Amino acid sequence: MATLYKKSSGIYYLSVAAQGKRTTRSLSTRSYQIAKKVRTNVESELLQELLNGKKRKPELIRFEELVELYLNDKERPWSNSTRVRNRQLLHGYIEKGLPDNITTRSMAIRTVNACNRWGHKRGLIEKPQIIPGGNRWESRQRVFNEKELQTLFSKVIDNNFNQFVRFAYYTGARRGEISALKAKQVLLDYITVNGKSSVRVVKINSQARDILKQRDELWNYSTCFISHKFKKECRRLGISDARFHDLRRTFGYNLIKQGKPIYEVSKLLGHSSVTTTERHYAPLLTTEIDDFIL
Questions:
Q1: pLDDT the model gives residue 281
Q2: Taking a C-beta distance cutoff of 8 angstroms, is the pair 174, 202 a contact?
Q3: What pLDDT, on the 0 to 100 scale, is given for residue 58?
Q4: Rounded to an integer, what is the distance from CA 260 to the centroid of its chain?
Q5: What was the pLDDT predicted at 197?
Q6: Cα–Cα–Cα angle for 290, 293, 294, nearest 5°?
């Protein structure tokens, strides 16, 4: 006899009884859908423990099945953009293996390892072999100079996208945070967006506010469209090695150059700590140190 139940903590447990004995195990999830899917394997394993007095080797599920369970776990505190990115990385790994780009490869390795740890914790797979290399990445330091910014602001032909590019720069927001803004998110001096791990406040300056006043409707772009459209426009305008995220990096860089305190810049960027901001911008600002004589 098996009973699936939820404790006051919200975590689901499975209790199995046989031959006058009973054993219970946490399913490590608050999602009923995940608990139902995990139940069959765990119930069989617990029954074997009761009958034979030893743990039964769990049946393995295919990695493709594990990925779908992991991505659909509503308990994960991901923003929409993070969920989309994880889906792209995991599906890319299934179809093509690890990417060649060092930074993307590192992101993929961390995501695959996280997925495997999640599956092992829930008894879906045996303890996985962790892929090394998740902390190897190249820090991108590309920022736009004044001429490149003015070229973008004046020569991106699509007016809707032109305003979106300028709004992204004036706020320093991530593309996923502003790609599908709703009117209710826009207040007088700030907007509320879904950040990497929680809702955050993005300050609106006078330049960003002027753009919003010109719009009857807000944007509704996919993150993939933004990336491809921006790269296409940059190629057309002769701006090389450009990515949409470089607007955000340029935003922070220019504020620091203007003398804005690093603590304020960190808050404007929505970084978890000032240390994160310093790590990202210290290599860039080394070039701004005045000449010195030893």
A1: 81
A2: no
A3: 53
A4: 27
A5: 67
A6: 130
Model-wide pTM > 0.70: no
DSSP 8-state symbol, 140: P
Task: With a cut of 70, list the residues of the chain below it in pLDDT.
Answer: 28, 53-60, 136-138, 196-197, 285-292
For every residue of 160-198, DSSP letters joined together read: HHHHHHHHHHHHT--HHHHTT--GGGB-SSEEEEE-SSS
Quote the pLDDT of residue 180: 87
What pLDDT, on the 0 to 100 scale, is given for residue 149? Answer: 97
Alpha-carbon distance of 258 to 236, in angstroms, equals 30
Q: Which domains does the chain have, with CATH numbers?
A: 2-52 (no CATH), 63-121 (no CATH), 146-286 (1.10.443.10)
In whole angstroms, what is the distance from residue 26 CA to residue 37 CA? 14
Structure tokens at 109: 């390795």
Encode pLDDT of 171-197 as tens digits: 999 998 999 889 899 998 999 988 766
Q: Which residues face 24 on adjacent strands?
A: 15
170 closest CA partner among 194, 188, 153: 153
pLDDT of residue 291: 65
CA triple 131-246-252, angle to 5 deg: 105
Which whole-number Å values give the CA distances from 94 to 20, 62, 229, in the listed order?
A: 45, 11, 27
The residue whose two tokens read 């753009």 is 211
Q: State the Cα–Cα distance between residues 102 and 133, nearest whole angstrom.
A: 9
DSSP 228: H
How many residues appear in the chain? 294
Give the three-state DSSP class for 26. strand
Closest CA relative to residue 21, chosen from 44, 52, 42? 52
Give the integer Cα–Cα distance in Å for 128 and 138. 27
CA–CA–CA angle 176, 180, 185 (5° rounding) = 100
Q: In this structure, which long-range contacts are made by residues 258-262, counting pairs with CB atoms below 8 Å and at least 24 apart in sequence?
A: none
